[in-house]
Amino acid sequence: MNGPSGAHAADELRARVEAATTGTPYRYRWTERGFDLIVDVPLPGGRRVHTYRVVLLPAEGTFTLADVVHTHERGPFGTTRRTVETGRARYRTWSRSLDGSERHSFSSADGHRLIRGVTGELGWRERKPAAQKAALVAGAVGGLVALGTLIALAVVFWP
Domain map of the chain by residue range? Predict the structure, then answer.
C-alpha cells in the first residue's frame, strides 16, 4: 500500500480528525498548514488551554505534532500569572468540586493517541519537530562531556 500524498490525503485526514472529535471536549480548528485540536483543561484557581498543533507535509506523507499550553493562574492578592509552554507536554490533572458532585480529569496523552490513531489508520508517519531533535542532540553532547570529565578526573586523581 502506498502512503498518503497530496492535498486530497491532507483533506481526508482533516475530515477524519474533525469527525473523531465530534461529541468530545476537543475543538477542531483548520489551519493553513494542518490543524489544531484545542481543549480546555479544568484547573482549580485558574485556566489552562491545551492546543495540539499538527503540521501536515502531504508530499512526504508525514506530520509534526507539537503541544502549546496556555495557563492563566490566579494568585494571592489578586495577582495573575500567565505562561505559555511549547514543545511536547505530558501531564495529567484531576479535580473535583468542593461538594464532590463534579469530577474532572485530563491526560494530554489522550489527544496524542487520538491524532496518532487517525494518522496511523491513513498511513501518515510522524516526524519529530526540529526543536525536539536539537534538544536530543544537545542532551547527548552534554552526556558525552560529563562522561569525559568523569574519566579525566578518574585518571588524574587515581592513586
Answer: 6-127, 129-159
C-alpha–C-alpha distance, residues 141 and 136, integer Å: 9
How would CATH label the architecture of 6-127? 2-Layer Sandwich (3.30)
**Distance between alpha carbon 85 and the CA centroid of its chain, in Å?**
10
Asked if 35 contacts 14 with a C-beta cutoff of 8 angstroms, the reply is yes
CA distance 153 to 146: 11
Residue pLDDT, tens place only, 112-157: 999 999 999 999 999 876 766 778 889 999 999 999 999 999 999 8
**What is the biggest distance separating any 2 CA atoms in the chain, rounded to whole angstroms?**
69
Whether the model clears a pTM of 0.85, i.e. scores above it, the answer is no
The torsion angles phi and psi of 61, rounded to 5 degrees, stand at: 70, 30
Rounded CA-CA distance 23/36 in Å is 16
67-86: string of b/e by CB count within 10 Å (b at 16+)? Answer: bbbebeeeeeeeeeeeeeee
**pLDDT tens-digit map of 65-120:** 999 999 988 878 878 888 888 877 777 776 666 676 777 778 888 999 999 999 99
75 DSSP 8-state letter? -
